[in-house]
Write a structure and sequence with these properties.
The complex is a heterodimer of chains A (244) and B (524). Chain A has 244 residues and is an alpha/beta fold. Chain A is built from 8 helices and 10 strands. In chain A, the strands form 2 sheets. Chain A has a 6-stranded mixed β-sheet, sandwiched between helices. In chain A, strands 2-1-4-5 form a 4-stranded antiparallel β-sheet, with helices on one face. In chain A, strand 4 and strand 5 form a beta hairpin. In chain A, helix 2 crosses helix 3 and helix 2 runs parallel beside helix 4. Chain A is globular, with a radius of gyration of 18 Å. The model of chain A has no long low-confidence stretch (mean pLDDT 90). Chain B is mainly α and 524 residues long. Chain B is 74% helix and 4% strand. Chain B has a 4-stranded mixed β-sheet with strand order 2-1-3-4, sandwiched between helices. In chain B, strand 1, helix 3 and strand 2 form a beta-alpha-beta unit. Chain B is rod-shaped, with a radius of gyration of 53 Å. The two termini of chain B are 33 Å apart. The model of chain B has no long low-confidence stretch (mean pLDDT 82). The chains are: A alpha/beta (244), B mainly alpha (524). The interface between A and B is medium-sized, with 32 and 24 residues.
Chain lengths: 244, 524
């Protein structure tokens, strides 16, 4: 069995009276690509934001390995995130953005120098590194976001809807990139409602519904349990079950 | 903390500042405001205020009838500062002030004439709603009319003094005559006495009847009888004697007439003497009057027309050398600029960062909030230093703003402290509000409140005492006072400077608390 890198135990989050996440228990395995699926408002983004420390859970505990997040030195450096809306400065060049976010993640001059070109090459942005981010195409901008999230060499990266608003070819490029990053030993969490992409990418998929973790397993396991050929079919059955 | 860690921290702050500058300068409008803003501002200010005069003041003038005197008043007003517009009627003149066509209306009486003994009243109609200007115009215009009025007073007084002097000279010149008249009168008086006395002693009494003519005739008859003289010879002698007697009687009659005349003369002389007494008395009282007039004129201590017209000379001596308006308002302008730029820029930068998509990544990064606060502060401070550098350099080099160089060090220190204070205030505003619009509105409102409760629009002495006491703690007022004392009198720092430091400490604390609160609110 693979080593557990992050454990979520009883994570509950409320915004006012509304429970957005309800007692989530989840293990994230080292080196895996874990998909988090769910309809809009199911709590995917909230869960990801709790993992990066932007939101604080009301109940439950997060563990990095076996150590609670709060006790892990430089915990924030261990996770990177690329959000749906591009989280970088449009008026900085690709290189400047990556450099800046590397620095605020505690990287030294030498560390940045050593890794920036590799990162640019990894995300295939080396040739456009001097261009302002706002002048790049949508696909390239997504890759700038990913580059900013991996520059400080995190052990886990979280991708929130990485293929949204991308055309077929760009989606294909993005999937390739995610696999490339994962091949470097980085654990990846992907939140998406494009189930076909998750199926082709993820080792396991966690399905959230109304803030609850309703299913967790590999795509084949889920398809087997719900006797469906596709993950969309699994999802439809889950929705029907919850309605009934 | 290890030195390498401090170095890394400084490098990190520098990189954040570098990023902020790149973002600001890559936005064309921001770059233009940062670079051209202060140049434009100082050019406008220098054009507007680098003078000690007021310009293009329109003065409405109305008089039913323009006399030479009223024309001379108008001529006095017509110089480079004033443009005189003759109005058709008093109502139009006053309406002109109300509508803003003219700044002041001067109504001159139709019979303005300084050569006649009339009251000449010139009326000013002022619009006090133009608070500062009203007093300036009124003061300048009043002094112009006062100048003309003083000239007239001087001329009239000179005329009076000249006449008085002429009178005194005439009196002085004729005084010996009066004196001699008195003496002559006295002499005439005594002579009259003598004449009266002499006349009274003249004996005009002669009685022919009681004369010895009868006796003489008897003796002659006896003689003729004794000497046997012929009768005819006797008769002849007697006839002669009779003739003589007749002559004597005539003489006697004349003596009587003379006596009677002498009595008349004596009477007249007595009357003359009485008149002389009256004359003497009159001349004596005239003499003493002249002496008194002369004494009074001589006793006038002030005979200088200027002194009589203006017995108290007021001279206004500025405690500083004559300077331009720019020198006087420099402190207010600098603090105003520092306040508005610092507050608006810092609130905008904080708000722009807060509302940008990258704020999320910043929030989840291991870099602490205080680092971002320090970096933002330093970014804005560098912009302030750049802008103030441009403004002070241009002022110093091209506008002969003599106040800058002698106190550059203290000036820099005050500006640094003031900028820090207003930057922190702006950052707090940026943190508290959620949209750029409300943040800008709050920044402008905050700056405006500080501006209103200062000496800039109205003197603070116009405020109720309690409000004034509070307004004295207004950082804008403190900064303004510190700068004006420094720039005009080269005074050093005083205890109010430390109040600014205390404000900075308090604002920094508030900023950190709010920053924490905002982060907590964001994290749900």
């Amino acid at each position: 069995m693979s080593e557990i890198i992050i454990t979520l135990k009883g994570i509950t989050k409320k915004f006012g009276e509304k429970t957005v996440l309800d007692n989530i228990d989840l293990d994230i395995r080292k080196g895996e690509i874990l998909g988090i699926a769910g309809v809009n408002g199911s709590g995917k983004t909230t869960l990801l934001r709790i993992l990066v420390g932007f939101y604080k859970q009301d109940k439950g505990q997060l563990y990095f390995g076996t150590t609670p997040f709060s006790r892990v030195p430089d915990m924030k450096k261990k996770i990177g995130i690329a959000t749906q809306d591009n989280c970088f400065y449009p008026r900085l060049t690709v290189e400047e953005n990556i450099d800046y976010f590397g620095r605020i993640y505690g990287m030294t001059n030498a560390q940045i120098k050593a890794s920036i070109n590799d990162t640019l090459k990894l995300v295939n942005l080396y040739d456009v590194r001097k261009m302002l981010a706002k002048n790049l195409s949508g696909g390239m901008q997504k890759r700038v976001g990913i580059a900013c999230s991996i520059i400080h060499s995190p052990q886990v990266i979280i991708l929130d809807e990485p293929t949204s608003e991308l055309d077929f070819f760009l989606k294909k490029d993005m999937i390739k990139l995610i696999k490339l990053i994962n091949e470097q030993g980085i654990t990846i969490l992907i939140a998406s409602h494009h189930l076909s992409e998750l199926e082709s990418l993820c080792d396991r998929i966690a399905i959230l519904e109304d803030g609850k973790l309703v299913e967790l397993g590999s795509p084949s396991e889920l398809k087997h349990i719900y006797s469906s050929h596709t993950l969309e079919g699994v999802f439809e059955k889950l929705v029907k079950r919850s309605v009934s | 903390m290890k030195p390498s860690m401090i170095k890394d921290y400084i490098l990190l702050v520098l990189h954040i500042i570098k990023k902020d500058f790149k973002l600001l300068l890559r936005s064309k409008s921001s770059a233009l405001i940062i670079i051209l803003g202060p140049i434009l501002l100082i050019l406008l200010v220098s054009f507007a205020f680098n003078t000690s005069s007021i310009y293009d003041i329109k003065v409405g003038v109305y008089s039913e009838k323009y006399t030479p005197a009223s024309e001379s008043v108008i001529a006095k007003l017509t110089d480079k500062e004033f443009r005189v517009i003759k109005e058709e009627s008093a109502t139009l003149c006053i309406e002109g002030v109300k509508s803003g066509k003219t700044h002041i209306c001067v109504i001159i009486p139709p019979d303005l004439d300084t050569t006649k003994d009339t009251q000449n009243e010139i009326t000013f109609h002022v619009d006090y709603s133009r608070v500062n200007l009203a007093w300036i115009i009124l003061n300048v215009l009043y002094s112009k009319v006062e100048e003309q009025s003083s000239q007239w007073s001087f001329d009239l007084t000179m005329e009076v003094l000249n006449k008085l002097e002429e009178t005194k000279n005439e009196l002085d010149m004729n005084y010996p005559l009066i004196k001699s008249s008195v003496e002559n009168t006295n002499r005439a008086f005594s002579k009259s006495d003598n004449v009266i006395l002499a006349l009274s002693q003249v004996d005009t009494k002669y009685d022919v009847q009681s004369s010895r003519f009868g006796e003489m005739k008897s003796e002659i008859n006896e003689l003729f009888t004794d000497k046997n003289l012929s009768k005819e010879e006797t008769k002849k002698v007697l006839k002669e004697l009779n003739n003589m007697e007749a002559e004597l009687e005539e003489v006697d009659a004349r003596f009587e007439s003379i006596d009677s005349s002498l009595k008349g003369v004596q009477k007249d002389l007595s009357a003359i003497k009485e008149l002389e007494v009256v004359n003497k008395n009159n001349i004596n009282s005239l003499k003493s009057s002249i002496e008194k007039v002369d004494q009074n004129v001589a006793s006038l201590k002030v005979k200088n027309a200027t002194t009589i017209v203006n017995p108290i000379m007021t001279s206004i001596k500025p405690v500083t050398a004559q300077k331009t308006n720019l020198d006087y308002i420099a402190s207010t302008l600098i603090v105003l600029m520092v306040m508005f730029i610092s507050v608006l820029l810092s609130s905008t930068v904080v708000m722009a960062d807060k509302t940008s998509k990258s704020y999320f990544r910043r929030q989840i990064s291991p870099t602490s909030d205080i680092t971002f606060v320090i970096a933002t502060y330093l970014t804005i401070m560098l912009i302030m230093v750049f802008q103030l550098g441009i403004i002070l350099s241009i002022s110093s080099l091209f506008l002969s703003a003599s106040f800058i160089l002698p106190s550059l060090l203290t000036l820099s220190l005050i500006l640094l402290v003031l900028s820090t204070l207003f930057i922190f205030a702006g950052m707090i505003i940026g943190c508290v509000f959620n949209s750029e619009e409300t943040s800008i509105l709050a920044a402008v409102s905050f700056s405006s409140i500080l501006l209103f409760f200062s000496n800039t629009i109205l003197p603070m002495e116009n405020m109720p005492v309690a409000v004034k006491q509070i307004a004295l703690f207004n950082p804008f007022v403190i900064g303004q006072n510190l700068l004006s004392r420094l720039l005009l009198f080269q005074s050093g720092l005083d205890s109010t400077f430390y109040a600014l430091i205390a404000y900075i400490a308090a604002l920094f604390l508030i900023l950190m608390i709010i920053q924490k609160h905002v982060a907590k609110k964001m994290s749900g």
